[in-house]
Amino acid sequence: MSSLKLLGLYRALFAIILTFLITSIFFIMSNTNPILAYYYIFVGAFGNINLIIETFVRATPILIISLGLAISFRCKVWNIGAEGQLYMGAMLGTITAIVLGESYFTFPIAFIMSLIGGALWASIPAFMKSKLGINEVITTFLMNFISINFIQWLLAFPFKSPETLFPESDRIPNSSILPILIPYTRMHLGIIIAFLLILPLIHFIITKTTFGFKLKAIGENPEAARYAGIDVEKILFLALVISGALAGMAGFIEVAGIQFRMRPTISPGYGYTGIVIALLGQNNPIGIALASIFIAAIINGSSTMSRMLNQPQGIVDFIQGLLIIFVLASDYILKYMSRRGLIKL
Q1: Where does the sequence pass through the membrane (predicted)?
Q2: CATH code for the part of the protein at 8-25+39-339
Q3: Cβ-Cβ contacts under 8 Å for 274 (sequence gap 6 or more)
Q4: Are 97 and 107 in contact (CB under 8 A)?
Q5: What are the backbone dihedrals phi and psi of residue 161, each rounded to the nearest 5 degrees, phi first?
Q6: Could you give the CA distance from residue 63 to residue 273 in angstroms, rounded to a whole number?
Q7: What is the CA radius of gyration of the chain?
Q8: Which of 121, 147, 156, 159 ranks highest by number of CB atoms within 10 Å?
Q9: Closest by Cα among 81, 78, 65, 236 to 143
């Protein structure tokens, strides 16, 4: 294993271990056995076949978003707007499905429109970044609020369901609903699409294509990449747009596989969770897949832990926050330990 890959593995493990250590201290301070807490989290995520499926259901939108973020992060374009891009893609896909109605073409067209919705929303900060040099962290983050609030208005007024009278869309037609693969579970086709289609496709793009090589070259040294003839601004634009397209896809798969309506609470923060996953997985698709399942297990298992031990379910947000901090700090800590001869990289 190369030193770079070894450093990435150490960084992820180091962040996870420190996160669990700090979380354990808070469990102890609240008179809770941390080993028992982690046991209930594990049981709540993998205790039986239905719980395992629910963990993969939760991991699916997170995985798709994180794979998109990995593309932009590899060239140091920090897309913080996946949450808003998810909402835009989900909304456009839902509207398309409802307008087309029952048809063999409803799902594929709505699916494509969800990609377009996320891509178009991402293209605005992408243009600002590539042509105007405006920091994408600020623009993508602020556009989350515009997107979410705009869609809340759409669902409260022009696209409000006349049947339920709640701020949500009509139910999408049956022809656009993803089929259930295992009866009496929520194992829908979107899980297969995410893990067996999107995951290997993004892995191929990143590791085997010229585009993937350009992403890496720009991420390591944009000026050297420009000197080598790479159109840096074009690649930055495409990376952010592709990232947004995948976020939009994740949103519509959540609608077509689980919700069946567009709701203002379609995402519990998947766009932000995707940032944690991409960083924890070191922008490597395989690492991202494992990290997606890991975080999904913590999210799902925490409800069981909360119920059994009377602990706040908000521990999930606490764990995610710690992971971001330690992933960002671990690189410097590990390199320092390597210079001191404590570990070998």
Answers
A1: 12-29, 36-53, 84-101, 107-128, 140-159, 187-206, 235-253, 315-334
A2: 1.10.3470
A3: 62, 65, 66, 68, 69, 82, 247
A4: yes
A5: -70, 125
A6: 10
A7: 21
A8: 121
A9: 81
pLDDT, tens digit, for every residue of 288-309? 999 999 999 999 999 899 999 9
* Alpha helices in the chain, H assignment, sequence order: 3-29, 34-46, 49-74, 82-100, 106-132, 136-156, 189-192, 199-208, 210-220, 222-227, 232-254, 270-280, 285-309, 315-339
Spatial separation of the C-alpha atoms in residues 213 and 227, rounded to whole Å: 15
Q: Which residues, other chains included, contact 43 with Cβ-Cβ below 8 Å and sequence gap of 6+? A: 51, 301, 304
Note every long-range contact of 215-221, with CB atoms under 8 Å and residues 24 or more positions apart, other chains counting: 215/71, 215/74, 215/75, 215/239, 216/74, 216/75, 218/75, 218/76, 219/73, 219/74, 219/75, 219/76
State pTM to two decimals: 0.94
Residue type at 325?
A: I
Residue written as token pair 């709640």: 166
Q: Residue 268 CB: number of other CB atoms within 10 A? A: 11
Q: For the segment 17-57, what is each residue's pLDDT rounded down to a tens digit?
A: 999 999 999 999 989 999 999 999 999 999 999 999 999 99
Q: Which two tokens stand for residue 207?
A: 């590791």
Give CA angle at 132 (211, 120), nearest 5°. Answer: 60
Measure the CA–CA gap between 65 and 61, rounded to whole angstroms.
6
Domain limits, the chain? 8-25+39-339
Do residues 139 and 75 touch, judged by C-beta distance below 8 A?
no
The CA distance from 276 to 283, in Å, is 10
Secondary structure class of 246 (helix, strand, coil):
helix
Measured at the CA of 288, the angle between CA 285 and CA 290, to 5 degrees, comes to: 115
Angle between helices 82-100 and 106-132 (to 10 degrees): 150
The answer to whether the beta carbons of residues 102 and 175 sit under 8 Å apart is yes
State the Cα–Cα distance between residues 218 and 8, nearest whole angstrom.
19
* Both tokens assigned to 340: 């001191």
Give the separation between CA 204 and CA 332, rounded to whole angstroms: 30
Closest of 96, 107, 83 to residue 247, by C-alpha: 83
